[in-house]
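tool_call predict_complex ligand=pyridoxal-5'-phosphate
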Amino acid sequence: MSKIETLCVQGGWQPKNGEPRVLPIYQSTTFKYESSNDMADLFDLKASGYFYTRLQNPTNDAVASKIAALEGGVAAMLTSSGQAANFYAVFNICEAGDHFISTSAIYGGTSNLFSVTMKKLGIECTFVDQDASDEEIEKAFRPNTKCFFGETVANPAGKVLDLKRFADLAHKHGVPMIVDNTFPTPILCRPIDFGVDIVTHSTTKYMDGHATAVGGCIVDSGNFDWEAQHDKFKGLTEPDPSYHGLAYTKAFGKGAFITKATAQLMRDLGSIQSPQNAFLLNLGLETLHLRMPRHCENALACAKFLKNHPKVAWVNYAGLEGDKYYELAQKQFKGGLPCGVLTFGIKGGREKSIQFMDSLKMICIVTHVADARSCVLHPASHTHRQLSDEQLIEAGVAPDLIRFSVGIENAEDIIADLTQALDKV
Ligand SMILES: *Cc1c(COP(=O)(O)O)cnc(C)c1O
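tool_result ok
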């Protein structure tokens, strides 16, 4: 079993004789042992097994190992949300007094986490423009820099990250590259294949795919050599007094990063995904390889339609010939298409964009993005509502920008809805 389509359907759960064919929901906080000694061995790490769902649960582990296989990583953990995944991924290597770098075109929630909340923890983030030169970007590195973060395809800006270039820049300075791969999913892009070390997801989006369960995931490639930078990553390379005095790199080798995130962060902060949600996520994953090409095919059809419409001012979709990121998308994404999300603006600005959105019938206005149903959001009126037009442009969100998440309905029906709404503008 090695092809990605097969892993989507059968990865993570291989039942033994007489066991359920479908991954069961282990709806149990706790696990039973015959003797006190049996459980003591678990706590001493002499034996491996489950004891409490905050740390590990068989349903979650099966789904995590499926996602690890899809991304080509060695280990993965599920978290309660994408926010928790990105926080844990960075906080697993950074502590008070440390610094890290992030590209500036990232999801608003992540941007706030990095610039406001992590700052309160004493961790400083420098934001860089991903379209700047290497020279410009390298100025952001400091002796206490611990990682570099970016999004494969930025939400909502749609900018595409040159994964190999950024992984190389990070490695040149002895730090791992962490990439949020929520929008392409491993079906369209596997960042580890381009040298990225750690991959995160908001599984809430395409992976679940049906807008039913909030969740997140962290996948480790196992490729970053923490020991080569022993003094920089002491949290991984030196004994952890809160965990039996173990040094994660020595005790767990390539599993060091995820083991530390589980044993320390999940133990203490507890943002576990519920097994119910992991079950729903797994159902979504079973059809991910069928849904992603359809999302992309529909998005490309809509992008072409919008591009040619006289009332549309502009369209951004990296899969569209002539787009700023078209060549990079051809190199980096299967079939050259990044995801099913595109952005565009209506001639006449903010007011006309709102009028257009209010005229849509099948395509709904929702905060969510990247599920089976087509939907739109107007960041200037919704997520970025507090900003003035000048501030919006600074934030890379044009006042007329509509984020359009193209679903897997029939493309003709989607375009018919766009047409009738454009007619009303
Ligand atoms: C939605 C999203 C997140 C946050 O995930 P939640 O599951 O909503 O916490 C992080 N990154 C990206 C790219 C997202 O789209």
